[in-house]
Write a structure and sequence with these properties.
six-stranded antiparallel sheet; 274 residues; single chain; Beta-Lactamase; 2 domains
Length: 274
């Protein structure tokens, strides 16, 4: 049912926006008859709307049939929006709250080749803290974020990200073989969180959880702090706050839109691909 409009002009604007949303929901150009059926609008009404949108560059005729698709003006606006709103910026207030609530460094990371990319890092206001920086990269096999992201990938897809074993050793606790990591991935999938148990840096513990609603699981949130504080008993308390932050990001439409733009730059292979 079409939303009630307050005037003829606002009704026309609403219809035009519905046309653009419908075009955006299809991968190929849409014929006039198909648009008419989906929007439940007369063809004569659609022709008038499309002529205005075409004149302003928001749609274009793809064929003489005619079929319609996005125009250059809309593509330019979309590209500008993507560049202005990045996932790290949107995540910042959520991570800042997490860092202050727990007293530990918070981080949101994504897969980027054979590394994990820290989209945003927020540090707590305390002298003893784990230092990292937004935009930095780190190894996958020995970090909480990296192991969480790898564990959620299909088995065949992991080879796209892991270099040949043995993997670099950073501490006596670093997992350096594929069988070790496979066992770790099983534990992570069961527990729904990962632990960097002083595997990257001695004296530092990192916990990570996936961001929900992220179907390809290329994003996770973590906290990092002193091993003496993040004891097994205390981790359960921290995991509650960590999970709540991940859920908040998973329901943040601007964050997910920015994340989808990142996926286009770093596509995640599906199971069975090489």
């Amino acid at each position: 049912m079409e939303p009630r409009s307050t005037s003829y002009h606002s009704q026309g604007l609403t219809r035009a926006l519905r046309v653009l949303r419908t075009l955006g929901a299809h991968d190929e150009p849409i014929a006039l008859a198909q648009l008419s059926r989906q929007l439940e609008l007369p063809k004569s009404t659609l022709v008038r709307l499309l002529s205005v949108l075409e004149a302003e560059g928001f749609v274009r005729k793809a064929t003489d049939a005619p079929t319609f698709e996005f125009g250059d003006a809309l593509i330019e606006i979309a590209n500008n929006a993507i560049h202005r709103v990045d996932a790290g910026t949107v995540a910042a207030p959520h991570l800042r709250h997490l860092a202050e609530a727990t007293g530990y460094t918070s981080n949101v990371g994504v897969l980027a080749g054979e590394a994990v990319l820290h989209l945003r890092v927020e540090e707590p206001q305390r002298a003893l803290r784990f230092r990292s920086s937004s935009g930095s990269i780190d190894h996958l096999h020995c970090t909480g974020l990296g192991k969480m992201l790898l564990a959620t990938l299909p088995h065949d897809a992991r080879a796209e990200y892991l270099p040949p074993a043995p993997y670099p050793t950073f501490t006596p606790r670093t997992l350096t073989t594929l069988p070790q990591l496979e066992k770790e991935f099983d534990r992570i999938r069961t527990n729904r969180y990962s632990v960097d148990d002083e595997e990257r840096d001695s004296g530092v513990i990192c916990l990570a959880v996936p961001v929900p609603n992220d179907q390809q699981a290329v994003c996770a949130v973590s906290i990092a702090g002193p091993a003496g504080e993040l004891t097994p008993a205390h981790r359960l308390d921290v995991l509650q706050a960590l999970t709540e932050t991940a859920a908040a990001l998973g329901s943040e439409s601007r964050f997910l839109s920015a994340l989808r733009a990142f996926r286009d730059a770093y596509p995640i292979p599906h199971e069975g691909t090489s």
